[in-house]
């Protein structure tokens, strides 16, 4: 065990810390859950197309992808608690703006501000690693890694009931109340971070990442309307590549980059980030497809005319299965190696897409399919955080987990945008709903995403890499596998 670089922060309410940190993850889930199920309602309420309303989901992920590394870098210094409180403040203001019946533009601004909250989970993980003893930290990190995924299935029916019985905007008022409660609890319970030197904010890196992500998502979202071979779209795609490549190059040269991209050279960190990103495309593609499919009027020749509440309840099996599987994986201990778990998770997720292609004619079939998807996510998310935490020094935990969240949101945003693009392409001129074949095409794209993820996982975990433990053992093994290039500043494991 290495010598800590600073004393562990004092806990005024030690038993309350983990529940409060989990509440931050649940808040992120609530913010996410206000997107997909409400898209058809937003389109009807604000008189915009469904593809335009999809931006109510995509913009949150876009802002989250940019805000997360910024908050992670700030949170690696002595001001982590202030960063958490600031993020909660943005979520609160954004929720209030989205709750005002002031039109789609105001809703979009509110959803963008809510996206800042997507950066809270890495800070919660870093707080647990710093503030808790090893045994409790292992369990807390594993729980936090599953909270956002599990919370989706819980947040959807709750916000759906508000929207169904109290109107669309009631769900956003619920998010505002949740954010206010989380802010109060954080102020009372969460300790200060260990004293570590502050680092300058990488403003050029943040601008490059923002521009690159915005150009990438705009390319995906507007491809069908502009034309995939149009000069404007090709120019936008080229700009996305140039800006993101410039961000990577800048990060490699910078003394204090927004995200230490060099940490990705660790094989465990690399496989975690690649599987997170590509798997995220398939996961959010599936969720977006299911929520739109079941709400489609039966007059279209498919769909179930389901209410928002029923749509949300169909995602509960996803949450229950992911939580159950995550616990089972942790019980396996050192036997739950990435070489075994990651391919298994990808196979289960792939199976869920196959079920969507073959057995979406009943609500029972869709519920079973979502449970299968939850099994896959639970297996994957129980392993990937441990790979990252084991591969980086403690003082870089916030930044490294934030980068993992960035690639996750890139995957989520891409999956969300892809679902809208594919279904829009399957919509006949003058029609308001896509043909059933559009869902089949989108399902095949999701299958390809999980197949690619599985191949990546097998190649990188078995291509000469030694087996690594899952998150259940990460706190004990982190010092052994992650040598800090600056030993005098080695963080607490």
Structural summary, described in words:
By secondary structure, this protein is an all-alpha fold. It has two domains: 16-192 and 259-484, MFS general substrate transporter like domains (Growth Hormone, Chain: A); 203-258, no CATH class. Helix content is 74%, strand content 0%. The protein is built from 19 helices and no strands. Helix 1 packs antiparallel against helix 9 (168-189), helix 7 (120-131) packs antiparallel against helix 17 (397-425) and helix 12 (267-295) packs antiparallel against helix 18. The longest helix has 33 residues, at 134-166. The chain starts with 13 loop residues before the first helix and ends in a 12-residue tail after the last helix. The relative contact order is 0.15.
